[in-house]
Structure formats: C-alpha cells, structure tokens
Design a protein that fits this description.
By secondary structure, the protein is an alpha/beta fold. The protein is built from twelve helices and 20 strands. The longest helix is centred in the middle third of the chain and has 18 residues, at 156-173. The chain is globular.
Amino acid sequence: MKKVLIGAFAHESNDFCPNFTTTEMFEVFEGQDVIDNLPVKDIFENAGIKIVPGLYANAQSYGKVKEETYKYFEQKILDIIKNESDLDGIWMFCHGAMSVENIGSGELRLMSEIRKLVGENCVIALGMDLHGNIEENFSEIVNIFRCYHTAPHTDQTDTYRRTAAALVKAIGRGEKPRTQMVKIPMIFPGEMAATTTYPFKDIIAKLEQLENEDKAVECASMFIGFAWADAARTSATVAIVPSDTKYNDYCENKAKEIADFAFSKRRDFKFEMESFDTDRSIAHAISSSVYPVCVTDMGDNPTAGTNGGSLSLLNALLRYNKSECKALVVGIYDPLAYKKCIEAVGREFELLLGIDIDEVTRPISIKVQAKRKLDIMDYDIETNPPTKKCEGVLVSCDNIDIVITSKPFAFIHKVTFDLCDLRIDDYRILVTKFGYIYPDLKKMTKRYIMANTPGESYQNVTELKYYNLTHPIYPFDDI
C-alpha cells in the first residue's frame, strides 16, 4: 500500500511588525486531529493510499517567526518523517511567506530538510497561499505546488484538494513532476491585487483555462507575493505543474507567457473599491446616503501580520462624527484595556486606550461604558466549524461602539459577528481591521471604502524602508 504523510506548517510573516511570532501563538494538532482538520482525507483514502498524520501548526500572520519556535516545529515534523522512511508522498499546507529569524524562508528550509530525509523518489506537494514569496530554487525541491486563485481567499479547500489529487496522480504514474516557475519583478500589496477585478481577474482566467482545458497542465497559479516581507525572494511568481513530465518544456513556455502577460499589466493594478486617506474615508462614510458603510483599516490588517492596535480610524471618528452616526469599530487590540474593561462591565469610566508602540497606537483617554464580554469565533478553513480565536469586550463611547480584543484579530466573517451578537444593521458605519472588502462584508453592508491608513501593512509600499529586495522591481524601479 502506498503511503502519504499530510500536515501543515504555515505562517505569513510581516517584517514591518516589530514583534516576533512565538510557539504559543500557533494552533497545533497532532495524530488523528491533523487528518480531521485538513480537507484531503477522502482523496487519499479513495485512492487506496494510507495516510500518516504529520503535524498541523498554523499561526495568524504577525512578525517574523522566532528561530527557536521554527526549529521546535521543524524538529517535530522531521522526527515523524524519520519514523516513516518508506513514504511515497508528502502533502502539506505551507503559506509561502514564512520568514524566520536568522534563517529566511521557512518553507525553503523545511522542504530542504525534508528532502534530505525522504530522498528524490518521494513526491512532495504543497497547497499554498497566493501571497507567498517563492525562492528561485523552490521547484528543485518541491515537486507540486499551487496557490489560491482568489483574493480575498475563498478557495483554500479547492487548492488543497487539487494539489492532493495531483499528488495521487503522480504517485500512480510513478513520476516525479517538476513545477515550472517564473519569477516576475513586481510586487504589490494584496489589496491592489484582488482577483475579483481587472487585471488579476484576467490573469486568473488564463490560469483556470489552462487547468480546465489543457491536457498538459495539472495545476496553474500565480503568487502575487507578500509585500511586507523585506527579502530578496519578495516578488510575484507563476507556477505551472505539468500533467506529465513530457510536458515540462511546454509548461515552462506557458509559465513565461503568463508571466509576461502579468508584467505587461503592472501599471493597471489598483484598489478594487473606492479608497481615501484616513480622514476622507471617515468623512465619506459619515456623509454617505446609503448605509451601513464598511470602512477597512488597510494599514493595520492583522491578517497581514500587524499588531491590530491602530487608533487612526477611531480617532477620525471621534474628530468628525458630530452628526451622531452610530458606528461600530471592530476590533482594537489592547490587552491592558481589555482587562480593565472586563473588570468594569456594567460601569462607565475613563479608559486609556492604546498599546503605545508607534504614532498610530499612542494612547487616548475616552469615557466608555463597558457592556459585555465576547468570545470571538472564526474559521481556519471554512469547511471546518468556527473555533475560539480570542476574547473581546464591547464598550460604548457616545455613539461609537468599540470591540477591544485580547489578541490582534480581523472581523471578516458573518459567523463572527453573529456569534458575538453584533447586528450590523444597527449601525451606519462599520470599521474593521482588514484590507480587502471580504465577501461576507459585502453582503452585510451597502457601501465599501478601503481606508489607506498608516501602519505595518501600509499600502504605499514605496514609502517603506526596504533593504533586501532584488532590484530592479516594479513599482520601486521604473521598469
């Protein structure tokens, strides 16, 4: 019987976040729980392949992964593999933008160490995130890799299952595929590269046509890259997996065609919705003739690795919201303020809010009424039930309700609002810490504004200080 190990080791690391990601921040599963939390079990079982559970370790985006944290999880994965020396394949979810203190790319390091153990005959397949920064030699180590076709991400499960199915086919043919990849010298913040609008929508259409109609292509994808990683590997990448090794040259040419097409559109990447600076975003929201209005805090997006403590949009609401528009701000990370509010539920008091690590988190004093504690739930993968991600407390400051969180968190799914009993129709303005207007947010609100706020996921990337990019690269260089 053929045997495949499955697992996950994933993180998206923001180099502009001053904090490190540490061991306790990872959600970890072992044994049968690994199999149960990854949506690929039936693909291998239906092919008569035995599944070996590896390790599942996944953390929300944040600063670089501490070296000791990375090595702890790496060793656990390698120890499991050492006890399964006859593996025919390995399937994992790896993000593609894990940066590790003193190491660099976590994915490249992990896959290199795994390859040393399993040799060349074991087929390695990865399902990955569209915001991965792929190393030049990645395809020399990993046989099959594909990323999501959607941003905002709604096809994670499909990507995992496609790569698992590709692995099954490769094992069945007795072949060792090699993904054909082409690096593209351009990088954009994800919010300027939504797959719901031109030009990325057109690029994805070409990739899907290859997957659905071209017998030579097993998987086709384009990584837009992760803009807030200051590394030589930071850039976009096209990756095409041949359906047979005899199509390697053909798929290499197709990858070049897609890469050339994408690069030709580099000046066309824009925000998908209307976007303004901090003050104008709130001014437009207040004066809007339709509501609720959703305003996303793009510069402080926890799903892009920020601290989640920016007060930029709250301060703007406090300055300009004189017309008594009822607003909901979700959520502001401040563990000390959270604790004080939990201790004061039912009372009105003066709260010092702000984690005080930079200009946008400088503390402010506001009079609030602490209303109630919240257990904040969300999905890891939408095919799995929501689980508790952190805690929050709902407070009111005049006409503004604020959710203060115990950890950085982005409210983007309807289930999160529902389980917190937050009814968006009760408000004219919803402010959430995210970048894109997530599909659920579009369903829940009537107008959408992407606020180009300052912070660790600032959209004006050319104004940030990078030291390690590979030049020339657009838009930093005029190419």
